[in-house]
Amino acid sequence: MESTNGTATGRAVTLRDVARLAGVSVATASKALNGKQQVRAETRARVVQAAEQLSFSPNTLAQGLITQRSGTVGLLTSDLEGRFSIPILMGAEDAFGSDQTSVFLCDARGDTIRERHHLRALLSRRVDGLIVVGARPDTRPSLGRNLPVPVVYAYSPSDDPADLSLVTDNVDGGRLAVDHLIRCGRRRIAHITGDPGYSAAQDRARGAQARLAEAGLELAGGEVWFGMWSEAWGRGATRLLLDRCPDVDAIFAGSDEIARGVLDVLHEAGRDVPSQVAVIGYDNWTILAANARPPLTTVDMNLEELGRIAAQRLFAAIGGTLGTGVETVPGRLITRESTAPLG
Amino acid sequence: MESTNGTATGRAVTLRDVARLAGVSVATASKALNGKQQVRAETRARVVQAAEQLSFSPNTLAQGLITQRSGTVGLLTSDLEGRFSIPILMGAEDAFGSDQTSVFLCDARGDTIRERHHLRALLSRRVDGLIVVGARPDTRPSLGRNLPVPVVYAYSPSDDPADLSLVTDNVDGGRLAVDHLIRCGRRRIAHITGDPGYSAAQDRARGAQARLAEAGLELAGGEVWFGMWSEAWGRGATRLLLDRCPDVDAIFAGSDEIARGVLDVLHEAGRDVPSQVAVIGYDNWTILAANARPPLTTVDMNLEELGRIAAQRLFAAIGGTLGTGVETVPGRLITRESTAPLG
Where in this chain does the record put each HTH lacI-type domain (chains A, B) (predicted)? Predict the structure, then answer.
């Protein structure tokens, strides 16, 4: 039988002792004693009784919580511009509660040695968990299975299926974009996108083509226009497209940068947007999308939501278990003025 | 006389003991024992002798350094997009040495309560120092004089003259931009800029006007066109400007965003850039400047350099003293294709 009086051993009673006596996880014991809503009344009563039995005082409780949770989470990123990692950081902080957890961001710049150094620094500061954010949605090496804290991979999935990864759903995003254009009555839809070496480019194109096929349509121009993630490619590809397929009535651009180039050349060619050609981008990078002329309809990857889910998974894993595999987070359509029903 | 055998007291010898015996600061003792170049040979010899005298072994040395320095610096930011803070973070890491110091970024989102919470979290992790980065180059409240570690304010200066602040030199930046246009042979130079409530807008305009005055020139259109930090304002102001002052031969835009709007309307009006009108932006925000048509000449604020200097000041302050007042970091001209000498 479990000892019911931790103090008799001369060792301070910890939350772990309370949890063991109550027959619950440490996370549940913590939630119960902190008055969180997720715990059933019956469970809470058992935990409180165990705490009393062990003379687990509020003061000891505070100390116990401190030893259980440091209130900090590390965010290891390789995203130089902070474009993807800042919204993920903000979402994670919102989920943890800004007054309870600080998220520390470290930038590894895609360098393995730097990443290892930051990892050691974060672990030596006893973070409660780690979120690893990649610069692109392609598989990255796992940090390994022997870390003392739970790790969630965000944006770039880990190559180890035993890890938990959260990624944006690019196939569904491509489908969303084309679905919107079809609902606007467009039938001659082209797709201009970035580097074919990125899974994001392949996945968005796959989703777009699947939705076209369901409507019995084919891509205008007969193929996906793969190229680069740049405005210049958006301009160049649009010139080629207008030449090959002058009656195109909608263009799905694989990024907002590309969409800016597309808009530029459509203006140059005297095509009205959206009445003659509808344009939709991807990313909802506000500086580019909201300032476009006309303001750009686009697909938002919901990175803040991804950050919130990462935080929830880490929180659940503290004292419990972390899931494995790849979870996808769907994007959402942001409608602005560059798309509209055919008149 | 100082005891020369710390171990006799039963207490572990620390770097502080070595420094005291050698008659140098802790920072100097640390540099001397780590083989850094900044220490004179004579000083180094004295420190090494003191270390030997106290049996300060390499192992004790490592422990001593750990108690002196944690190898982490906190970067508290309120810059939601990470636009200013990420390059400052990168510059600071470069100066510290990426394998020796990790910079932890926390985002306070301009919220005082959140900032206080992150500050406590960073201090409880025993960071060696703090860099506080604001979202705009206007004065911000000091974190106070009683912090246990040195603090450097970057981008936004502290309102307490006893603090050390590093800011970009916007007056000089405005001067740089106009100087370049004058060297390109331009005489009818207009200035379209952002919100007049920002010191950045006022300072850049002041520098521009000072340089014009030196050349015996006045602003084309007779005034600074203050408005908003947006492409839409760049477009609107350029239409007004072309109407009032059709022979303008150069436009200095107060940001790259504004410059994008300026370029857009010049194209629309059939003005060639740069042969008829030269355009220069501010910020060197690559996504906007390098992708513009033509690629945009602009002023770079040297934020990485600012981060490096902040790191050096913090490093010097550990075991020493931190300066006070406001230091300005000059910007530099990035020449691309939107400016050229008059043909």
Answer: 13-67
Looking at residue B31, its pLDDT comes to: 76
Q: What is the 3-state secondary structure (H, E, C) of chain B?
A: CCCCCHHHHCCCCCHHHHHHHHCCCHHHHHHHHCCCCCCCHHHHHHHHHHHHHCCCCHHHHHHHHHHHCCCEEEEEECCCCCCCHHHHHHHHHHHHCCCCCEEEEEECCCCHHHHHHHHHHHHHCCCCEEEEECCCCCCECCCCCCCCCCEEEECCCECCCCCEEEEECHHHHHHHHHHHHHHCCCCCEEEECCCCCCHHHHHHHHHHHHHHHHCCCCCCCCCCECCCCCHHHHHHHHHHHHHHCCCCCEEEECCHHHHHHHHHHHHHCCCCCCCCCEEEEECCCHHHHCCCCCCCEEEECCHHHHHHHHHHHHHHHCCCCCCCEEEEECCEEECCCCCCCCC
Chain A residues touching residue B116 (CB < 8 angstroms): none
Q: In chain A, what residues touch B104 (CB-CB under 8 Å)?
A: 104-106, 121-122, 125
Size of interface A-B (CB pairs under 8 A): 101
DSSP-derived secondary structure for A249-269: -EEEESSHHHHHHHHHHHHHT
Residue A230 at interface with chain B, using a CB cutoff of 8 Å: yes
Q: How many CB atoms lie within 10 A of CB A23?
A: 13
Point out the residue among B99, B105, B235 whose CB comes nearest to the CB of A104: B105
Of B85, B102, B231, which has the smallest distance from its Cβ to A118's Cβ? B102
The 10 Å Cβ neighbour count of residue B302 is 20
The string of pLDDT tens digits covering residues A169-209 is 999 999 999 999 999 999 999 999 999 999 999 999 999 99
- Give pLDDT, residue B137: 87
pLDDT band at A159 (very low <50, low <70, confident <90, very high): very high
Residues 286-315 of A with CB under 8 A from B: 287-288, 291, 293
Chain B closest-CA separation from residue A119 CA (Å): 9
pLDDT band at A25 (very low <50, low <70, confident <90, very high): confident
Domains and CATH numbers, chain B: 15-57 (1.10.260.40), 71-168+304-331 (3.40.50.2300), 170-301 (3.40.50.2300)
Task: Please give the torsion angle defined by the CA atoms of residues B229, B235, B236 and B240, in that order, rounded to the nearest 10 degrees.
Answer: 120
- Of A102, A235, A291, Cβ closest to residue B257: A291
- Which chain B residue's Cα is nearest to A97? B114
The sheet with strand A189-192 has its strands ordered as A189-192, A250-253, A278-282, A297-300, A332-334
Q: Is the peptide bond before B274 cis (omega within 30 degrees of 0)?
A: yes
Confidence (pTM): 0.79
Structure confidence at residue B289 (pLDDT): 96
Average pLDDT of the residues in A316-343: 90
- Percent of chain A exceeding pLDDT 70 equals 89
Question: Is the CB of B106 less than 8 angstroms away from the CB of A104?
Answer: yes
Cβ separation B82–A80 shorter than 8 A: no
- Other Cβ atoms less than 10 A from the Cβ of B37: the count is 5
Query: How far apart are alpha carbons A334 and A284 in whole angstroms?
Result: 7
Q: What is the mean pLDDT of each run of 10 residues along chain B (343 residues)?
A: 37 75 84 70 80 60 46 89 87 80 90 90 89 92 91 96 96 98 98 97 98 98 96 97 97 98 96 98 95 96 95 82 91 98 82
Which range, A84-88, A141-145, B250-254, has the best average confidence (pLDDT)? B250-254
Residue A225 gets which letter from DSSP?
B
